[in-house]
From TrEMBL:
One of its GO terms (molecular function) is protein dimerization activity. It is an enzyme of class 2 (transferase). This is histidine kinase. It comes from Kribbella soli. Keywords: ATP-binding, Kinase, Nucleotide-binding, Phosphoprotein, Transferase, Two-component regulatory system. PROSITE patterns: HIS_KIN. The keyword Membrane does not apply. Its EC number is 2.7.13.3. The keyword Protease does not apply. Residues 170-261 form the Histidine kinase domain.
Length: 262
């Protein structure tokens, strides 16, 4: 009889023990899962930082390449007019000096990017962000280098996603640098259109150039960087880029960058 009385108590004790054991196992599993999730978040954060560094390094490479192109062109111009027109030679050398200073600043950014703080903290100051809000600075540098540029802005400017903003700036920079290299310095035209669901950018080199010809697309011309790299970048945002010679002489680069707005 006592066995029948004790059996429920023993069963209850076993159930309680099993419950406590299962509860502890569940708690340990949750703790382990939380630890794994935290490690995954840390890994994802590090990967995101590495990807951002790579993107910034690519942008810095473009900036330095642009400035060096300006320096080479202006140094050549100074050499040609040094004896006959010293004032123009001085202006060209000032352009070389300004571009050189910009290049050194960007190289310092790049070195800082490749050598992060020992604490692992990121410094936003090491991440220069080209933007259409800085377009006037680019236009001034190009004009000072010898290529007059007319700028037209249509529509009401609105904030752009950072990557798309950088891409639009890069398109204009690359097109104007090409016009400066290959054109005769007549004039370039830049048009930026803020449409409701897309940003449109167009750069025209209005003068005759070594690129005059059939009017076919020449995105793949050159060393494979430049316009081809821009076409790939534009494709990331679902956009389109067309670069071609103009039948009447000169060059045209046109891009459409779709965007989602609330």
């Amino acid at each position: 009889m006592w066995f029948l009385v004790a059996l429920p108590a023993v069963a209850a004790g076993l159930l309680a023990f099993a419950y406590v054991r299962a509860r502890r196992a569940h708690t340990r599993a949750l703790e382990e899962r939380g630890w794994l999730l935290e490690r995954e978040r840390e890994t994802a954060a590090r990967n995101a930082v590495d990807a951002e560094r790579a993107r910034i390094a690519h942008d810095l490479h473009d900036i330095v390449s642009h400035n060096v192109s300006v320096m080479v062109i202006q140094a050549g111009a100074a050499r040609q007019v040094l004896a006959a027109e010293p004032e123009q030679a001085e202006a060209a050398l000032l352009a070389v000096e300004a571009a050189g200073r910009d290049t050194m600043a960007e190289l310092r950014h790049l070195l800082g990017l490749l050598a992060p703080k020992a604490s692992g903290e990121e410094d936003d100051a090491l991440a220069p962000q080209p933007s259409l809000t800085r377009l006037s600075e680019l236009i001034d540098r190009i004009a000072f280098a010898g290529l007059p540029v007319e700028v037209r802005i249509s529509g009401d400017p609105y904030p752009l996603p950072t990557g798309l903003d950088v891409t639009a700036y890069r398109i204009i920079q690359e097109a104007l640098t090409n016009a400066l290299k290959h054109g005769d310095g007549v004039q370039a035209e830049v048009t930026v259109r803020y449409a409701p669901h897309a940003l449109r950018v167009e750069v025209l080199n209005s003068g005759p150039s070594v690129l005059t010809g059939s009017g076919r697309s020449v995105v793949s011309d050159g060393d494979g960087r430049g316009l081809l790299g821009l076409k790939q970048r534009v494709a990331v945002y679902g956009g389109q880029l067309d670069a071609r010679r103009r039948l009447g002489g000169g060059f045209r680069v046109r891009a459409k960058l779709p965007l989602e707005r609330p």
